[in-house]
Amino acid sequence: MAEFVKLATIHDLPDGGMRAVEYNGRRIALFRAGTTIYATDDICSHAYAELSEGFFDPDDHTVECPLHGSRFDVRTGRPLTLPAFAPIEVFEVQVQGDDVLVRVA
Length: 105
Ligand code: FES
Hints:
The chain contains no helices and nine strands. The protein is mostly beta strands.
């Protein structure tokens, strides 16, 4: 069972912002919408693109891939528009004090 690991602090993520972090050789994207943090794979499921270089909309909880424009729901990982059709992985997040903890397998 994967454990929660600290990948950032809340101060690393301005409201409405996103950033990528590396953990165990894997890129994880963190998104902040108000007081809620979401964590997903940073790599698009369609081809190689870093979603953290795309566009995050905190109001509808979506990130748009910078390469071909697929939009993903960061809460579920589900692609909402083509050309991506496979979901991206999402990770459970806990905020403890200032620390952002993510359960990464
Ligand atoms: S690489 Fe993301 S939509 Fe193509």
